[in-house]
């Protein structure tokens, strides 16, 4: 285990059903926290506490034949889904299969000390297990969250960040979360932005055996790391942009998570802006990059009324407050410029 001294803070939502008491302030938090027993009342959690077979059987009750995306790796990867040795590909392969077939495959490895790595990631709950959320759900105060399910054996998911806020509930098994604040980006040695295992850039550091000669700044990252181990029914809130490494510790693990953004749906992903900046600004001469840094500070990162006060409201165009119509117009302008 990594030498991490600080635990993710725990909050007490209170009440017989803590999930009904998550305040708006908690759901807008900018620091991570753990809520023990948030989903203790879920039948799925109760089944998982009974046995692996009971949890497996409970999931199958809702399965109606949909296929899922599965990641499969040889025993040699020790559950770590990652790149191959020279970063030209990956150390696993992906397949689409019936969920019951995946569960059968996992069952065959439960007693094996060197199991193949099996992982069903980010699958919409209502699609693959319709009806599961009727009795296994979290009240998020009306937020239009995407509920996903993650099923696997003893797997390790490299540190990465997500744009949405994330409430992750351990429904079966045990998981260890290792978190880093966004400002630790430079100390995590991030891999390619546009070629990665699951659409998100990941840290190249192997948390099970860090190579401090190759990644010396990772020692500094560890000074800012937080760790939490969760049992069935426990939940962790991971704010937008926080790096998190997730390790499943038992032969059968189920996690249900909820993603939502604190911004309107018409706003595009900032990742698109980053990729465009790589295309348009990174290779500029230093003086020009500095000039553009000031432009972004003025209009984006430190905007104030003084940046538009000299313009009448009808003439502010792209500088006016964003709404759905203006977002559509901006997107159209951008597409025209990119297609020239």
In words, what does this structure look like?
This protein is α+β, with helices and mostly antiparallel strands and 340 residues long. The protein is 24% helix and 22% strand. It is globular and about 70 Å long. The longest helix has 16 residues, at 286-301. The chain has helices spanning 24-27, 43-50, 52-60, 99-108, 125-128, 218-222, 270-280, 286-301, 324-338; strands spanning 33-35, 67-73, 80-81, 93-98, 117-124, 146-152, 156-160, 165-172, 175-180, 226-230, 235-238, 243-248, 253-260. The chain has 2 domains: 18-260, Jelly Rolls (Sandwich), CATH 2.60.120.650; 270-338, no CATH class. It contains 9 helices and 13 strands. The strands form 2 sheets. Strands 1-11-8-13-6-5-2-4 form an 8-stranded antiparallel beta sheet. A 5-stranded mixed beta sheet has the order 3-7-12-9-10, with no helix packed on it.
Main features:
340 residues; alpha+beta; Jelly Rolls; 2 domains; five-stranded mixed beta sheet; 9 helices; globular
CATH class of the largest domain: Mainly Beta
Secondary structure tally: strands: 13
Strand order of the largest sheet: 1-11-8-13-6-5-2-4
What spatial form do the alpha-carbon principal axes imply? Answer: globular
CATH topology of the largest domain: Jelly Rolls
How is the biggest beta sheet arranged?
Answer: 8 strands, antiparallel
Distance between the termini: 52 Å
CATH architecture of the largest domain: Sandwich
Task: Name the beta content range.
Answer: 15-25%
| Structural domain count | 2
Radius of gyration using CA atoms only: 22 Å
Count, helices: 9
Low-confidence stretches: none
Determine the structural class based on helices, strands and strand pairing. Answer: alpha+beta
| CATH-defined superfamily of the largest domain | Cupin
SSE run: HEHHEEEHEHEEEEHEEEEHHH
Average pLDDT rating: 95
Q: Percentage of helical residues?
A: 10-25%
């Amino acid at each position: 285990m990594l030498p991490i001294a600080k635990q993710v803070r725990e909050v007490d939502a209170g009440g017989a059903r803590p999930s009904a008491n998550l305040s708006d302030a908690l759901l807008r938090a900018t620091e991570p926290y753990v809520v023990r027993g948030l989903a203790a009342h879920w039948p799925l959690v109760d089944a998982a506490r009974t046995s692996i077979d009971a949890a497996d059987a409970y999931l199958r009750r809702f399965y109606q034949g949909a296929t899922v995306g599965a990641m499969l790796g040889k025993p040699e990867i020790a559950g770590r889904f990652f790149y191959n040795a020279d970063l030209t590909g990956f150390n696993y392969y992906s397949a689409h299969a019936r969920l019951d077939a995946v569960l059968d495959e996992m069952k065959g490895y439960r007693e094996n000390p060197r199991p193949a790595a099996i992982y069903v990631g980010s699958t919409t709950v209502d699609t693959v297990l319709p009806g599961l959320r009727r009795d296994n759900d979290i009240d998020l105060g009306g937020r239009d969250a995407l509920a996903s399910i993650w099923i696997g054996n003893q797997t390790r998911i490299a540190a990465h960040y997500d744009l949405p806020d994330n409430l992750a509930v351990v429904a079966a098994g045990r998981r260890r979360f290792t978190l880093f604040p966004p400002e630790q980006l430079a100390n995590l040695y991030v891999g390619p932005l546009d070629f990665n295992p699951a659409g998100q850039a990941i840290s190249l550091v192997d948390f099970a055996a860090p190579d401090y000669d190759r990644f010396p700044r990772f020692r500094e990252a560890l000074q800012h790391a937080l760790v939490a181990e969760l049992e069935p029914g426990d939940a962790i809130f991971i704010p937008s942009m926080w790096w998190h490494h997730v390790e499943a510790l038992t032969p059968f693990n189920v996690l249900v998570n909820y993603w939502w953004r604190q911004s309107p749906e018409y706003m595009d992903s900032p990742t698109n802006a980053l990729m465009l900046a790589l295309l348009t600004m990174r290779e500029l001469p230093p003086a020009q990059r500095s000039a553009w840094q000031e432009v972004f500070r003025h209009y984006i990162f430190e905007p104030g009324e003084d940046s538009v006060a000299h313009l009448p409201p009808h003439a502010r165009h792209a500088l006016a407050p964003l709404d759905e119509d203006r977002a559509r117009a901006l997107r159209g302008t951008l597409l025209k410029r990119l297609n020239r």
